[in-house]
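Title: Comparing notes on inverse folding

I've been comparing how different people in this forum approach sequence design from structure. To keep things fair, I'm posting one structure and asking everyone to reply with a full sequence. Here's the target:
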């Protein structure tokens, strides 16, 4: 064989090997970052972790979801801001965060609007198309609705029977929540703004001694350990959703986009089912550990009159009057 022939064979071999080599860029997995306030070792954390494993398996390692637990990416409005600036790809959000994504979604947690899951689901189903379209226009995708629990008023050292009982208390207001300031103003009590991560130390120090919480959250975040009364009236229903930054989802391949959205929707449904069950269990536990404040019909009616005043006030600026009217019609208030 001539030297020239040997050179050609070697060159062809090198070329063939180069063609078989997979570049780092081609083999690197796509990573979707998700933020949540939930602890890793919580029912919500377990569902989210199962979701990450399912995506990794179904994509053969080419698509991964990295979940940042325990408010590692900040409170909900901070997570929404990071999604807007492409620092975070998605988050599990409740009402305040959803309102930051698309304001009308926050109206689902207006006080007294829903007393049970059935009425909430009926209204949200009717509004879902509008909510999703609004979120998409704002640059987000609702991956799936996932609920949290029934919110009741919990307190320390005093039973809360009427709005007047709140006037001498230090009432928690989630600093990101657009509803809280209006409710405090209408009913007439002092509110103390705090982040979700800041609530436990605020309860521990006595800076806050009243909070309206779902039983599930009160148990998971250990807030209940600093409270000793729970009023049996459902003030609102804590709703939530898995939300993605639309530009990040659009940048995925069609296969990975479909996989993310399909499994995300399934995870949200699993969250709703699991957390509703956990919330019921938590409330049963709390009723054994705390004093249950059972309201009379007169006291309940007084609260619902106050809640209506709050909703009417919210419809004068925080939310559109037409939205409040539509929700009122859907819930027959």
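Reply #1:
Here's my take.
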């Amino acid at each position: 064989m001539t030297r020239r022939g040997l050179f050609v064979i070697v060159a062809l071999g090198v070329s063939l090997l180069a063609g078989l080599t997979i570049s780092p860029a081609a083999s690197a997995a796509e990573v979707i970052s998700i933020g949540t306030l939930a602890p890793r070792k919580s029912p919500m954390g377990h569902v989210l972790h199962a979701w990450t494993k399912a995506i990794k398996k179904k994509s053969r390692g080419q698509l991964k979801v990295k979940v940042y637990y325990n408010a590692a990416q900040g409170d909900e409005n901070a997570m929404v801001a990071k999604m807007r600036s492409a620092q975070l790809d998605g988050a599990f959000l409740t009402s305040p965060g959803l309102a930051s994504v698309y304001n009308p979604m926050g109206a689902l947690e207006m006080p007294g609007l829903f007393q049970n899951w059935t009425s909430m689901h009926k209204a949200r189903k009717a509004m879902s198309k509008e909510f999703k379209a609004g979120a998409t226009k704002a640059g987000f995708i609702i991956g799936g609705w996932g609920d949290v629990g029934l919110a009741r008023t919990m307190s320390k050292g005093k039973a809360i029977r009427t709005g007047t009982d709140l006037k001498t208390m230090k009432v928690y207001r989630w600093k990101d929540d657009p509803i809280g300031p209006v409710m405090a103003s209408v009913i007439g009590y002092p509110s103390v703004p705090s982040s979700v991560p800041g609530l436990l130390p605020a309860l521990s120090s006595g800076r806050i001694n009243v909070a309206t919480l779902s039983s599930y959250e009160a148990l998971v975040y250990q807030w209940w350990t600093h409270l000793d009364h729970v009023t049996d009236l459902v003030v609102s229903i804590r709703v939530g959703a898995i939300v993605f930054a639309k530009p990040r989802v659009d940048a995925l391949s069609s296969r990975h986009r479909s996989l993310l959205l399909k499994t995300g929707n399934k995870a949200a449904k699993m969250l709703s089912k699991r957390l509703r069950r956990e919330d019921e269990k938590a409330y049963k536990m709390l009723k054994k550990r705390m004093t249950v404040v059972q309201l009379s019909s007169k006291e309940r009616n007084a609260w619902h009159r106050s809640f209506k005043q709050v909703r009417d006030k919210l419809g004068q600026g925080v939310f559109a009057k037409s939205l409040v009217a539509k929700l009122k019609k859907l819930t027959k208030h």
